[in-house]
Design brief:
The chain has 745 residues and is α/β, with parallel strands linked by helices. The protein has 27 helices and 26 strands. Strands 5-6-7-8-9-10-11-12 form an eight-stranded mixed β-barrel, surrounded by four helices. A six-stranded mixed beta sheet has the order 20-21-19-24-25-26, with helices on both faces. Strands 2-3-1-4 form a four-stranded antiparallel beta sheet, with helices on both faces. β17 and β18 form a beta hairpin. α3 packs across α4, α23 crosses α24 and α24 packs antiparallel against α25. The longest helix has 26 residues. The radius of gyration is 35 Å and the shape is globular. It starts with 7 loop residues before the first helix and ends with a strand.
């Protein structure tokens, strides 16, 4: 539905009641094309958006029935305002102030919903004082004049001289707010970001309108210089180690007026040093002359200034630009921070950013933190610094409140494991073709040609992987001018990667993925070779690892262990926190398997997982059979389980678990191993020896008084460790400082 048009007599009444009316025409450029591409519904929606935005502007001036913006034709609206005998300069200011605001509103809507931007054309005319008889005719002539101006464009050189904007710059009316950037290790303020605002109540109060206007009309350098001066003038005293972040457009850095001498002069005036300043360069804008830009930054670095890249990963050049610049700080855009505590993909991306920063000598600043969960997760990942509304809003003067790191410290203790993927890489192995080091290069090329889905060939000799040949790498060598003539007849050992990533099948997927991510850029997506006892087993792609990690983290985020389906670390933390708050006695049972690693090595991961599942099912049954309805069981990773039970039932539950596990674990062995009661395997020293059958050890800790999660975890780990020194399936209860041993099953 189009915006309702007032009756003609209301329009006439308004025209007759006011003299010196200003007429503004706003047209949606290419509106007809919009209607053809997206249909009438979208076109009408854009019209209504334009009308509504105009109707909400400046309600203080006389209006026509509170709706002084009218639709006069398709994609076109007229705004009637009472400005008195305004000159062209004042009308021009008004027209372009409104245009910038409307363009920002329209851009936000169309970019997100349509993926493109529609430009607004603007024109204006004055309706002077006239007789009532001529008023309507002159009104229609003014409409035509304004429309012609909108269609023909306005002299941008004249707009650059906008008196309002120049007055703001000339009179130093820029306001500065300061938002703290916190150190996640100490909670102290590491730096202050200076954020510019226009005069309160003015058309330029919003920073987006202020800077969009400046950039559109060639005033960006003047505005940024005014902002830098105001920031250094008003920031006040910086504590030891603190810095001031100043936002800089990439083109400003290479502008001749951005002279280091001028900046140093202002710094010296306010008692600041280059070491106190960080130039924060937004990556949303393209860098036209990268070589000149890079040299200029090196010049400022040599004087002591630091460099930060803002909105990393969301702009024109992406991570390649970040890696090339090697900034002191990388500010990660809020689009990656939002829901990082709930979205495993965002978490993985943030972990990647932390790893990248470490490789190039930078530190990560997470922007736009709005929840406690986001802040806590970022500290877990290892993000160095953070800022956002949850931590502190921008203020003037500077807010000096330190961050309470107790609120952000993860509840889990290292004794309870961590939220991670302990799946062995061997479970993801896929087969690939192998060749010997002496195979001719042209033969390897034929292998790729006849197997289009094949991405790699492993070079193996005597069962041991010696190198890796990726299809893209082979093509790159042979595609050179003399590549085929040079290499076709030579053995593949000449071209193979002699230092591929090789891991043992028992390595966790998470650690392999992290190591793979730290490789040089050219090999970042090369496949990983997996071995078993040093012998070639297969390969794993980076994509397979990332997919597996994402799936596991999704399950863990739900609060369950992906193998057993039993609540995991997150649920355990909440349960412990709840019980500690209640201050009522409870027992913690910490169960762990003995000789499990050797069993896993000899029988394989599949049978090892079955043993873990067996213990989980037995503990679930025992707690259900002998415990209370409020008892709780968690699988915290690997072969570790933790339960919260009633103190009176703790030993009865442990007795049921140890006796049942001793009987059922026998079914997990071959007949001969079961008969002799031991298996041959390699110990941690690599030597062959006899190992008893897998057994379970349980530590029991009574929590009778208020205590911390860390203290409880340490106590449980100690008593479980003591239980593991005893032979067989056992449970041990901590007797208030003197551990007592339960019955061996």
């Amino acid at each position: 539905m189009h915006a309702a048009t007032p009756p003609i007599f209301e329009l006439k009444k308004f025209l007759h009641a006011h003299n010196w009316l200003s007429i503004f025409i706003f047209r949606l450029k290419d509106f007809g094309l919009c209607r053809e591409l997206y249909g009438d519904h979208v076109a009408e929606e854009l019209e209504n958006l334009l009308i509504n935005a105009l109707n909400q502007h400046d309600p203080g001036s006389p209006m026509l029935n509170a709706r002084h913006a009218l639709r006069i034709s398709c994609g076109e609206a007229v705004l009637i305002r009472c400005l008195g005998q305004a000159g062209d300069s004042q009308l021009m200011d008004q027209a372009f102030s409104l245009k910038v605001k409307l363009q920002a509103i329209l851009r936000k809507h169309t970019i997100s919903s349509l993926g493109r931007e529609f430009e607004i054309e603007v024109g204006f005319a004055m309706l002077p004082e006239s007789s009532l008889f001529e008023r309507e005719r002159i009104f229609h002539e003014a409409i035509r004049d304004a429309r012609r101006m909108a269609q023909g464009g306005i002299d941008l050189e004249a707009v650059k001289l906008s008196s309002t904007f120049r007055s703001i710059i000339r009179n130093g009316q820029i306001r500065m707010l300061f938002q703290p950037i916190y150190d996640f290790k100490t909670g102290a303020v590491m730096a202050w970001e200076a954020l510019a605002r226009g005069p309160r109540g003015s058309d330029f109060e919003s920073p987006s309108i202020l800077f969009d206007f400046a950039e559109q009309f060639g005033q960006l350098f003047a505005l940024e210089q005014a902002c830098r001066s105001k920031a250094m003038e008003t920031v006040g005293t910086l504590a030891s180690g603190q810095r001031l972040f100043l936002n800089i457009h990439p083109r400003t850095v290479v502008d001749p007026t951005f002279a280091p001498g001028k900046t140093l002069e202002i710094l010296d005036k306010h008692g600041l040093r280059p070491e106190d300043i960080v130039f924060e360069i937004t990556e949303r804008h393209s860098i036209k002359d990268f070589t000149s830009f890079h040299k200029t930054l090196d010049h400022y670095r040599s004087q002591g200034f630091k460099i930060a890249v803002d909105d990393a990963g969301t702009g024109y050049s992406g991570l390649s630009t970040v890696a090339a610049l090697k900034p002191d700080f990388i500010k990660v855009d809020m689009s990656l921070v939002r829901d990082v505590d709930k979205d495993p993909v965002r978490r993985a991306l943030m972990e990647t950013m932390v790893t990248l920063a470490g490789r190039i000598g930078s530190e990560i600043i997470a922007e736009g933190i709005e929840t406690k969960g986001e802040a806590r997760t970022l500290t877990e990942i290892g993000v160095h610094f953070g800022q956002g509304y949850y931590l502190s809003r921008p203020h003037f003067p500077k807010p000096e409140t330190p961050l309470d790191m107790k609120e952000l410290t993860p509840l889990r203790s290292d004794n309870f494991g961590r939220l991670s993927c302990s799946i062995p890489i061997g479970q993801l192995v896929q087969k690939t073709l192998t060749v010997s080091p002496r195979t001719p290069v042209q033969s390897v090329q034929r292998i790729f040609a006849t197997n289009p889905a094949l991405s790699s060939v492993v070079v193996v000799e005597d069962g041991i992987p010696r190198g890796l040949v990726m299809g893209y790498s082979l093509d790159r060598h042979l595609a050179t001018l003399y590549g085929r003539a040079l290499y076709a007849e030579k053995p593949v050992a000449v071209l193979m990667d002699t230092t591929p990533m090789i891991v043992d099948e028992r390595e966790p997927v998470e650690s392999v993925a992290k190591d793979a991510n730290t490789r040089e850029m050219l090999k970042a997506y090369d496949e990983v070779i997996v071995t078993s006892g040093g012998q070639f087993l297969g390969v794993v792609t980076v994509q397979k690892m990332l997919t597996t990690l994402a799936q596991v983290q999704v399950e863990m985020a739900k609060g369950t262990n992906p193998l057993t389906g039993i609540p995991g670390n997150v649920a355990l933390e909440k349960e412990i926190e709840t019980r500690l708050r209640r201050a009522k006695p409870f027992c913690m049972l910490y169960a762990d398997l003995d000789n499990f690693k050797v069993y896993n090595d000899v029988y394989g991961f599949k049978d090892g997982d079955f043993v873990i599942l067996l213990l989980g099912r037995i503990m679930t049954w025992a707690i259900s059979r002998h415990g209370h309805s409020g008892d709780f069981l968690a699988h915290i990773g690997g072969d570790d389980f933790v339960a919260m039970v009633n103190p009176e039932k703790a030993e009865r539950i442990c007795q049921a678990v140890t006796r049942c596990f001793k009987r059922l674990i026998l079914n997990c062995y071959h007949t001969q191993d079961r008969a002799r009661g031991w298996i041959m395997g390699k110990g941690r020293d690599g030597k062959e020896q006899q190992f008893p059958l897998v057994s379970v050890s349980i530590g029991i800790v009574d929590c009778m008084a208020p205590c911390s999660l860390q203290a409880l975890g340490e106590k449980a780990a100690q008593i479980k460790g003591y239980a593991k020194t005893l032979p067989g399936n056992v449970y041990v209860r901590d007797r208030r400082g003197s551990s007592g041993c339960g019955q061996a099953a």
